[in-house]
Amino acid sequence: MPFGILYTRSQASERVKNILVFDLGYEDEAPFGAMLDLEDRFLITEDSSARVLFASSIVQHECIPQAILGMDVICQAKSGMGKTAVFVLSTLQQIEPVAGQVAALVLCHTRELAYQICHEFERFTTYLPDIKVAVFYGGVNIKTHRELLKNECPHIVVGTPGRILGLARDKDLGLKNVRHFVLDECDKMLESLDMRRDVQEIFKRTPHDKQVMMFSATLSKEIRPVCKKFMQDHYIKLRETEKNRKLNDLLDALDFNQVVIFVKSVSRAAELDKLLLECNFPSICIHSGMSQEERHVPFTLNLLQLMRYKGFKEGHKRILVATDLVGRGIDIERVNIVINYDMPDSADTYLHRVGRAGRFGTKGLAITFASSVADSDVLNKVQERFMVDIKELPESIDTSTY
Q: pTM for the whole thing?
């Protein structure tokens, strides 16, 4: 069955009058527009048959609208729920093919899966002749792959980490123009230490500004933070005395849903919260100085601190100043920015902190203040341990990145 590319409702209406809807294994004719709200986007071919692909699985309904917008995605769903179509469709919708440049990279842990994914891309690009797809994995003479890259460089590359890294190290495969980075069955690749190292080295060879999508049927609690570390982090070098002014500037400039600001001590949490309130920022403070009862028992009107936490969780307050009490185990959906006002004392603590920013289908932005040699040392340890490249925060921030 030939497939095509996604169009908006208005674009589709110019081409077709009726739509044939495909719904995960069966076909059913439907009047135009009779489908779930998918950001009003439809997949149709360029031929006269006016066929449309539409899959109503929860995974696709939830993920595709976000992925099409270029948001980072970490998705867990059982096999057969259509995860592959999510990154195939969203990548094809966004890609702008340029001759000789790889725009999308898909990594998977076996050659069989790599071949299968490449086949899916080929199905969906039947009516997109300008987009070239190729698959690379071990067991095939590497000279064959080198010749293909030299003579007919694909726009979309699918492959296993070992072969992809080998081609990249030999400079046969250029990754500097990659805009979409996908890991399928990411848990399989990230749980294996050797394969994780390959993936991390490949990741570092791609641009910092790109979309990251990860998919798996099983995603353990241990591997989720490893996945999240591939999202966007930045740092700011400044003096200790400049932190308050810089924080105020950031809160004025950033378009955030909610933000968590981490500090290193109870006293600093209380002082910073007081300062923010004096500057008319909607702030609350939670720290380890509160009693265990105040932090965790069900909310009652007699517990002021607990009511503050509830206000933040429900969105009534938008700024939370906290110690590392909030760095582990507390999940608040609306938080899309984390600011390390004080540098954490270890790489593990850093990872737990920045994991608070960004939930399923959303981008998270982490900004860390580095004001001393010790801060820089911790930042270097984070980058070395997790093999990520944390960039200095640019003067202007594109709101679409978080």
A: 0.53
